[in-house]
Amino acid sequence: MKRSFLWAMFLGPVLFMISSCAKDEDGTANDFVTSSEDITTQQDILDANETEIGDQLEAGLLDLTTRSFPVRTWLNPKGTYPNTLTIDYGPDGVTGPHGHVRKGKLIIDMTAPWYEAASVRTVTHENFYIDDVLVEGTVTVVNQGPNPSSQMVWERVVSDRKLTFPSGKTITWDANQTITQLEGGQTPQLRSDDVWSISGTSDGINRAGKDFSGATTEALVFRFNCPWIVSGAFSLTVDGVTISIDYGDGLCNNAAILTLPDGSTKEIRIRRWW
Q1: What's the average model confidence in pLDDT over 251-263?
Q2: Does a structural domain hold residue 101?
Q3: Is 86 in contact with 65 (CB distance < 8 Å)?
Q4: What is the distance between the terminal CA atoms of the chain, rounded to a whole angstrom?
Q5: Interval 72-100: pLDDT, tens
Q6: 243 domain-assigned
Q7: Exposure string (b/e) for 161-180, b if CB count within 10 Å is 16 or more?
Q8: Phi first, then psi: what are they for 37, rounded to 5°?
Q9: How far apart are the C-alpha atoms of 158 and 138, rounded to whole Å?
Q10: Is residue 205 part of a domain?
Q11: Nearest 5°: phi and psi at 35?
């Protein structure tokens, strides 16, 4: 069982699709596949951008020559708090890690440094696109301090989230999530060793106009050096019926297993579908 978001955030918006060799003629299965694609799209774009914000805050990618950079503007001197960082990718866009193209602005309000307990980071969007998808809504993250295992924990609230695709179809999404840094917390200036988990609940309306809700049954695990969720499981409910999505056992790839209400399974591939 394998699977390929974004932190990363900010993790990568390469998204759910059924493998091209599978043909699904069942409407219920199609509803679940659509909702699976949509909720994974939201999570991937969210975490792809979380990673991007971390990189821009620390200018941690300046040693790489394979990408260009947006314009970063601080409201107050960098390193002072509270502060606001505006990341402007311009109308033509900037290509970042994993080939994602961002346009418009991310606006990040911060009360204190990211690793300081009780610090709050609020992200809003101004005409912001990632890979031609318009992103709207507010993401608020509060540092909860270390857990009993000395791992840093954040609570993330996603509100009024809306993705609008080039076709005009939309996804709306709200979520409450717990983010735990599993590895890399001792080296905050080094992003490449970061590993974190995400758990929580979410609900929304998929691009077919159907309500859905979901919850992690096994925390989703992201690694900075992989554009996909590498492990974890998620339960998804559409029209009162629940399925499960298994993201694998740690391999970095773009496959997952969808288990339908009748117990049958489908391998789905994560790729750009719009």
Answers
A1: 88
A2: yes
A3: no
A4: 25
A5: 999 999 889 999 999 999 999 998 877 88
A6: yes
A7: bbbbbeeeebbbbbbebbbb
A8: -60, -45
A9: 6
A10: yes
A11: -65, -35
Q: Which residue has tokens 């900075």? A: 224
- Number of other CB atoms surrounding residue 188 within 10 Å: 16
State the pTM of this model: 0.80
Where does the chain have alpha helices with state H? 27-58
Q: Give the C-alpha separation, 47 to 28, whole Å.
A: 29
Rounded CA-CA distance 127/154 in Å is 27
The pair of structure tokens assigned to 126 is: 């101004």
Residue 170 in domain: yes
Cα–Cα distances in angstroms (integers) from residue 106 to residues 130, 223, 248, 273, in the given order: 11, 23, 32, 24
**Tokens encoding 156:** 């993330």
CA distance 204 to 212: 5
For residue 111, what are the domain limits? 16-270
Q: Quick one: how far is CA 196 from the chain centroid?
A: 12
The structural domain count of the chain equals: 1
In angstroms, the CA 232 to CA 237 distance is: 17
